[in-house]
Amino acid sequence: MTQVFKFGGASIQDAAAIRRLGKLLARFPARPLIVVVSAMGKTTNALEALLAEARNGKTADYHDRLETLRRDHLSTVETLFGAKAGPVAERVEALVNELDQLHRQHASRDRPFHYDQTVGFGELLSTTIVSAWLHEAGMATAWRDARELVVTDDCHQAANIDWETTAKRVRGLAADDGRIRVTQGFIGSTSEGVMTTLGREGSDFSAAILAHCLEAEEVTIWKDVPGLFNADPRRFDNAVQLERISYDEAVELAWHGAKVIHPKTLGPLQQKSIPLTVRSFEDLEAPPSTIGRDTRFDTQTPSLVLRDEQTLLEIRPRDFAFMDEPRQHDILGRLVEAGLHANLIDAGAMRLSLCLDGHPERLEPLITSLCTDYAVVRHEDLTLLTIRHADDALLAALSSGRDSLAERGNADTAQRLFPSTQCQGTWHIPG
């Protein structure tokens, strides 16, 4: 059965990391194996900055950034291959030169289109280097261009998959000829061959697309942590690993802001009952976390999510009328038009409260619009606590000493909104 491995930027950030990747893959001889690779390290951020320079006409800054990109990748090639670096370095040079030409060609086009023609070069560069290194390390590999595999529409920066055509194109990846297929995450192309990108968490999504089309046995996402946790270990001193959760539970956690797997990645896997495993590339012996159909473990451990920089809007009709369905429909419609998502919604007879991420460029026009028809009270600098599967004692302990500005709850999820000044420092989950 086909296996799909996905490696993010941290796992291939430099020559030492790519060598470690080679040693890791050598421990998994089973084939067919498809390896989906992100851009190296912070390359996508660097490419986005390069895009900005290309569009604002700052030629000197643009060339400085382009040369830094070229130099960093060539340095990795030279460290890996030494005297044999020539052929790989030539391919890297060719890709950087092509990127430069595309920036010149598309700088006057709409930003989403320009973005998609250029930012995906991070994955093309990384897979060129990784594939060559695996070959050098004695593993038979085949480099495949994801733009020839993943077919999408032309919704740039958030392309939608043409599943039927994509399935036809990726079938050959499962050929059991002993070679590892190395391909790119994040990118695809239209049926006309115009490059597209898949949006947030695009590389994880790429792995899920291929696994879905090939009905793979499993997808493994390799990270610098051993798995998924019930809370952010940077905020909670006693967070514990969730070794098994269901697709539904993972989606709930992601919806509430947990840094788990994005729902668009889980959807294609859930449809084919393909488990997703998160493992540590730094410690292969560490127990992984697995997301699958089994729901038995979802309620065993409460999960907690903190979202900072929240804004609470308390919205009331000016005429002392009910906050009825037509008014709620009007307000939520404006929220959709602003491109915002409510992390908490709480309604009363004459009030609708919305907790929103603090995006000033989107939030301010929304508030201006609402103030024309409603009385709006605004509270800023807040932190939203969401707890899955909490009992009353846990909720009370975590709320103690904090002033709740808004609350929501159901059988599975409780939410409390506190001033951020009361949420600083390390949290502890009462046992």
UniProtKB/TrEMBL annotation:
Keyword field: Amino-acid biosynthesis, ATP-binding, Kinase, Nucleotide-binding, Transferase
Name of the protein in question: Aspartokinase
Gene3D superfamilies: Acetylglutamate kinase-like, Aspartokinase, catalytic domain
Gene Ontology MF term list: aspartate kinase activity; ATP binding
Catalysed reactions, as listed in the record: L-aspartate + ATP = 4-phospho-L-aspartate + ADP
Cellular component GO terms, alphabetical: cytosol
InterPro entries per UniProt: AceGlu_kinase-like_sf (IPR036393), Asp/Glu/Uridylate_kinase (IPR001048), Asp_kinase (IPR001341), AsparK_Bifunc_asparK/hSer_DH (IPR042199)
UniProt keyword Isomerase present: no
The keyword Cell membrane is annotated on this UniProt entry: no
Domain Aspartate/glutamate/uridylate kinase: 1-279
Lineage: Bacteria, Pseudomonadati, Pseudomonadota, Gammaproteobacteria, Oceanospirillales
GO biological process, one term: lysine biosynthetic process via diaminopimelate
Family, per entry: Belongs to the aspartokinase family.
Pathway: Amino-acid biosynthesis; L-threonine biosynthesis; L-threonine from L-aspartate: step 1/5; Amino-acid biosynthesis; L-methionine biosynthesis via de novo pathway; L-homoserine from L-aspartate: step 1/3; Amino-acid biosynthesis; L-lysine biosynthesis via DAP pathway; (S)-tetrahydrodipicolinate from L-aspartate: step 1/4
EC number, as in UniProt: 2.7.2.4
